[in-house]
Write a structure and sequence with these properties.
alpha+beta, 35% strand
Amino acid sequence: MTGKEISKSRLGTVVFPLLLFLVFVMSALFLILIGGKVYENINHRSELAYQKEIAFSYIANKVRQADETGAVSLTESGGVQVLELKQSIEGTVYVTQIYYRDGSLWELFADQNSGLSVQNGNQILECGKITMELSDHLLHLRSESDSGGELFLSLRSGGA
C-alpha cells in the first residue's frame, strides 16, 4: 500500500459518517418544521371550534334561563340581529340583548326603558359570524365560521 491509498481510505471513513450525520440532521430539522406546521393547524382548528362551542353554549344557557312565555324574541336594532330575553326583577322589566357585531358576540343587560342601544353592549367573545332564526318554538343558531355548525333550541315555554 502506498501513502495515497491510505489517505483515500481515511478520507472515506471520515467523509461518509459526516455525510450520514448531515442527512440525519437535515431530516430531523425538516421533521421538526413539518410537525410545527401540523401543530399550528390543529391548534387553529381547535380554537375555531372552541369559539363556536362557547358562543353556542353561552346563548343556549341564557335562553334556558329566560325561557318563559313571551320572554324570548328576535328583533333588529341598528341593523344588527338581536336576541332579546326579558325578565321581571322586583316589578321592573329588564332585557338581555345578545347579538353578533364586529367579529364578536355582545351582550347588553339593561332596563327595558333605558334607551341603551347595541353600541352600549359588552363584548363577550370574539368568534365567527352567528345568525339566529326564531320560528314557532324553535331557535336556530348558525355559525358561519370556518368550522361552521348550527344549534337548534326548542323553547319549553312554547315560543314567543
